[in-house]
Structure formats: C-alpha cells, structure tokens
C-alpha cells in the first residue's frame, strides 16, 4: 500500500516525464528493505552451486543441440524438468515451427603449392558443393574490406579466401568488427564471380579447430559454398600468398537447407505480487551449434539465469513484478525464438529484457537502455554489484542477442550484464566449447549479479521504459 501511494504521488514529479530534476527534487530510489534483500541475494548467489549442476547436465548430459534436432527436443524436456526442480512456476514450452540447416560431411585441402589437408567447418546455411567437390585457384584477400574494394575480375571462377583477423577484447568488440566477414563474405565473393568462399575462422585462438557460425545469402546473388578453416591453416595460406606461391584449393561439403522442424521457447516464472502483470525477463538461448557441447554458448547462460530466478524464488520475499526466465529456441541461426516470443507477448508490459549469452566469464559491467528518469535506479543497482567487481556502464548497453531483437522491435527497456569475454572467442562455435571452459566460481558470481539485478528491477518504484530511441 505504501508503495502504491508513493507511485501515485510520484506521478506528478518531473523525472517521470524524463525531465531533469528541479533543484531539491527527490531522485527515485529503491526501498531500503528491497536494497538489503538484493544484497542478501547477491551474497547467497556467490555460494550458488545450482548453476554448475545445470551447466553440467545440459552440456554433458545432452551436448550439442542445434535447433530442431532430436537433442534440442531433449534439451527442451530437460529445461522444463530442471526449472520445476529448482522451484520455478508456470513452466511451459511454446512450440515454434521453423526451417533449419543441417551440416553434412565436409573436407577441404590445399592442392598447391603442396597437398595438405585443412581443418574446416562449413558455415551455417552453406549450400553443398557438387559431390565431386570444387577445385579452383585461390583469390586471397586480407579482410572483407579488401574484397569489397575489389572492382576487378580477380575472384571470377576462383575460391575467395578472406584472412579476416579477430582481435582479442574483453567486451567482444573485436568479434563485432570481424564477424561481418562471415556474414557478408559469401555474397560479396559470389557477386564477383567466385565459386566458393573460404574464411579464416572468426576466433581468437591458435588451435587447429574451425569456428562455424551463420552466414547469409542474398536471393539476387548465386549461393556459393562457404566454410571456415582453422587459424593455423589460414596463417600457412597467408605465408604462401606472401611468398607469391600459386594457391589451389579443393573443397567438398554437403548440407541440407530448409528442413522443416520444430523447436520451443521454454518459459518459467517467479510470480509477482502487486505488479505481477509486468515482466522482468532474464533469458538465454537453449540451442547451440552442432560442434562441441554448447557449454559457454550457451548452457552457461541457461544455468545462470535459471539459478538466479531460483534464488529469488527461495529468497523468502515474493517480487512485485513477475521474474520470467525465457530460454529461447534457435538464437544461433535465425532468432526464431525471440521473434515468436515478441509476437506472442507484444501487448504485455516488460519492465526489462536481458540475456546472458557471452559465456561463463565474470560480470564486470552493468549497462542499460532505460528511460532517463530511471537512471538513478540503475546507478543504485550498480552500487549493489560493485563489491563483485562490477562497474557502471552507459545507457547505450546491449542486452544480448535475443533480448536486443525484442528491445528494438518492442522498445522494451533493457539491462546488459557485461561479462569478461577475453577468452570466449577461443572456443566459440567450436568443438572446444565444453564444460572444461566453465569455472564454477565465475558462474556463481554471475548468478549473484543476475539475482540482485532481476530482484531490483522487479521492485523498482517506476517503470524502466520506454528507453530512448
Ligand atoms: Zn550464444
């Protein structure tokens, strides 16, 4: 009752309209008991062991689970069982039909200057080569920009090779700058008459493993087979190119596109009280690529947000708003789950959308996309997380890929808990993405951050949205 009165009384205050505070005006603040409870959740999160159990079950019990596969169906069943077991309510799976891509066998090798096998992986959505494969001279480019700047005939009839390097960064910006080569490279190569597209793996490791990931075709341009080779293979090719050696490559790969399938969004909740119709979304994606175990991408995120919600549900106080765990289907190759969720819940007010999808590294930054009037509340949230090594970020944050789709489409406010991704792209989308990459302590720090953040968002005295455009 007291809170309701505060809200009504507050309606006339300038910060609700996004106006600057007049001198002496009161900034919005969390209730002191709510702040104390957030600190208790944070401290309990640091002792959490639930997330580690969940990661192990999903990553090693089920393993790789591309959307629409039989393993994906088992992951959907597992996620519902796990959410019920850890005490969440309203657990359900919402079906979504989709068309999926399936990898078949693939191999690539250098034919000249010397015969050598290459470690490769087809890019997601790649078309097949003819059964006998494709052999051609290589047109080598240092990066996507160089390919795009080529107005000549060099690529015609050749296999385009793009040696795009991925810079190691804590915030993933190096990947952000490099990944365009994977997404746009095949179309740019085909526009110039290439017969296939090869890419230095978009990754920061120096292992002999290839990184997959989605590429995209354009209906106006021929679809050519596309694949990535390991970084050491790419470096060898670059050296031959620098020496002026004639490069010739052979590739044979098979894949199926547009296979009818079904996947699900899995949803579970901690029911709210007086503002139960408003949703605080904590999310991750349940699907993974078909290589490795999908442990850091994204069993870790699944485990973190589920364990954080479980902590809130066991915490002895019901949240005002409903805390909703959403485990999206098919983030990796189409965002079908995010779009289906947005269509289904478009009319439901969302206090917050957020996603954990950057591995299992420690959270170091809290960024937001909220209405300016709510910024003092985000600053208070950051103060609660400060003892865990979390810095305040700006109000231009990214909340994770599926949540970003929803933030943009529905103009729902968002929070991004930025993780340390220094090592994330060593294993991302590869066979090395296994539970061996996950540290229980970092996982618990994540759970602590998410539990405190979601709780405070649920208790906020004012709506976080709409965020600035
Ligand atoms: Zn992911």
Strand content: 15-25%
CATH C-level of the largest domain: Alpha Beta
Order of helices and strands: HHHHEEEEHEHHEEHEEHEHEEHEHEHH
Number of strands: 14
Main sheet overview: 11 strands, mixed
Distance between the termini: 34 Å
Helix and strand topology:
Layout: H1 2-10, H2 32-45, H3 50-62, H4 70-85, E1 89-112, E2 116-118, E3 120-122, E4 134-141, H5 144-149, E5 159-162, H6 173-178, H7 180-191, E6 196-200, E7 226-229, H8 231-242, E8 248-270, E9 275-285, H9 295-313, E10 321-328, H10 336-344, E11 350-355, E12 363-369, H11 375-385, E13 391-392, H12 401-410, E14 414-419, H13 424-427, H14 440-459
Parallel strand pairs: 4-5, 5-6, 6-7, 9-10, 9-11, 12-13
Antiparallel strand pairs: 1-2, 1-8, 3-7, 4-8, 8-10, 12-14
Bound molecules: zinc ion.
Structure commentary:
- The protein is α/β, with parallel strands linked by helices.
- The protein has 2 domains: 27-99 and 260-459, 3-Layer(aba) Sandwich (Aminopeptidase), CATH 3.40.630.10; 114-246, Glucose Oxidase, domain 1.
- The relative contact order is 0.19.
- Residues 1-19 have low confidence and may be disordered.
- Helix 2 (32-45) packs antiparallel against helix 14, helix 3 runs antiparallel to helix 9 (295-313) and helix 10 (336-344) runs parallel beside helix 12.
- Strands 1, 2, 3, 4, 5, 6, 7, 8, 9, 10 and 11 form an 11-stranded mixed beta sheet that branches.
- The chain has 14 helices and 14 strands.
- The protein binds zinc ion.
- Zinc ion binds at residues 285, 297-298, 331, 357.
- Zinc ion is lined by residues 285, 297-298, 331, 357.
């Amino acid at each position: 009752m007291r809170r309701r009165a505060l809200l009504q009384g507050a309606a006339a205050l300038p910060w609700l309209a996004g106006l600057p505070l007049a001198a002496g005006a009161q900034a919005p603040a969390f209730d002191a008991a709510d702040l104390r409870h957030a600190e208790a959740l944070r401290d309990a999160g640091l002792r959490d062991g639930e997330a580690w159990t969940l990661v192990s079950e999903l990553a090693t019990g089920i393993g790789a689970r591309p959307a629409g596969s039989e393993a994906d169906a088992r992951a959907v069943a597992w996620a519902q069982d796990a959410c019920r077991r850890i005490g969440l309510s309203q657990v359900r799976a919402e079906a979504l039909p989709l068309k999926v891509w399936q990898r078949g066998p693939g191999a690539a090798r250098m034919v000249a200057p010397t015969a050598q096998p290459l470690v490769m992986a087809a890019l997601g959505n790649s078309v097949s080569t003819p059964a006998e494969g494709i052999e051609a001279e290589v047109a080598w480019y240092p990066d996507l920009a160089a390919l795009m700047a080529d107005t000549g005939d060099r690529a015609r009839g050749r296999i385009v090779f793009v040696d795009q390097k991925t810079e190691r960064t804590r915030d993933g910006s190096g990947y952000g700058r490099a990944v365009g080569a994977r997404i746009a490279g095949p179309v740019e190569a085909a526009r110039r008459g290439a017969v296939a597209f090869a890419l230095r793996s978009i990754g920061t490791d120096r292992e002999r493993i290839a990184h997959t990931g989605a590429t995209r075709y354009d209906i106006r341009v021929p679809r050519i087979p596309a694949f990535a080779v390991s970084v050491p293979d790419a470096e060898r090719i670059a050296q031959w190119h620098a020496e002026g050696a004639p490069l010739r490559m052979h590739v044979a790969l098979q894949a199926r596109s547009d296979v009818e399938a079904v996947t699900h969004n899995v949803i579970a909740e901690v029911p709210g009280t007086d503002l139960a119709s408003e949703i605080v979304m904590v999310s991750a994606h349940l699907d993974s690529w078909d290589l490795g175990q999908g442990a850091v991408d994204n069993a870790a995120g699944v485990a973190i947000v589920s364990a954080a919600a479980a902590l809130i549900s066991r915490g002895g106080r019901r949240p005002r708003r409903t805390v909703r765990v959403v485990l999206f289907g098919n983030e990796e190759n189409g965002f079908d789950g995010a779009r289906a969720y947005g269509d289904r819940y478009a009319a439901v007010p969302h206090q917050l959308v957020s996603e954990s999808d950057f591995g299992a590294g420690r959270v170091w930054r809290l960024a937001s996309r909220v209405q300016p009037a709510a910024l003092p509340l985000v600053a208070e949230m950051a103060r609660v997380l400060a003892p865990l090594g979390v810095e305040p970020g700006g109000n231009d944050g990214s909340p994770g890929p599926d949540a970003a789709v929803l933030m943009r489409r529905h103009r729902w406010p968002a929070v991004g808990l930025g993780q340390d991704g220094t090592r994330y792209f060593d294993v991302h989308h590869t066979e090395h993405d296994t539970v061996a990459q996950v540290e229980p302590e970092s996982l618990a720090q994540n759970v602590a951050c998410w539990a405190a953040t979601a709780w405070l968002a649920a208790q906020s005295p004012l709506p976080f949205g709409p965020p600035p455009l």
